[in-house]
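User: Sequence recovery, please. Input:
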């Protein structure tokens, strides 16, 4: 996250935010699946307010050339194992720009779910992509990604010492 993103999060209610991010990939080429997240840890009095503010900021920037466009509205999810926080997910369409190379069958946009979670110490967004699903036009269910994000949240939240 940029320094302006961190300042925005402070305005939205995150005290002393410290950023964290990672990208996880499985497979390669047409079998590649990715789960990327970016977020902060700090002190958060009202997690739902911050989650909603993150979606509002994404919506404000939605549809800009070469970027992401949100589709529909955020939906709240509480997958098995998700406790003490709030998670909302929504479809997004990513614009890859001009597709180059010999593969004219690869679309220059793709839709995929993204989720934002918040609790009293972390807030983050995560986006999931699956090349095979994208290439075939198969829809990726929001609830499936919410479950993946629950596992990610469990893995990345550790006590700061």
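Assistant: Recovered sequence (161 residues):
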């Amino acid at each position: 996250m940029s320094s302006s993103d961190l300042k925005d999060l402070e305005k939205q209610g995150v005290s002393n935010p410290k950023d964290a991010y990672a990208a996880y990939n499985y497979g390669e080429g047409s079998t590649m699946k990715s789960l990327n997240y970016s977020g902060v840890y700090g002190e958060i009095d009202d997690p739902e307010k911050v989650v909603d503010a993150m979606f509002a900021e994404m919506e404000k920037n939605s549809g800009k050339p070469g970027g992401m466009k949100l589709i529909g509205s955020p939906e709240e999810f509480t997958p098995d194992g998700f406790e003490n926080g709030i998670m909302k997910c929504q479809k997004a369409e990513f614009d890859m720009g001009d597709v180059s190379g010999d593969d004219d069958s690869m679309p220059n946009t793709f839709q995929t779910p993204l989720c934002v979670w918040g609790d009293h110490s972390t807030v983050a967004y995560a986006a999931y992509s699956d090349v095979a699903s994208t290439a075939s036009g198969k829809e990726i269910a929001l609830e499936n990604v919410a479950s993946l994000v629950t596992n990610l949240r469990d893995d990345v939240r550790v006590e700061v010492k």
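The longest strand covers residues 14-26.
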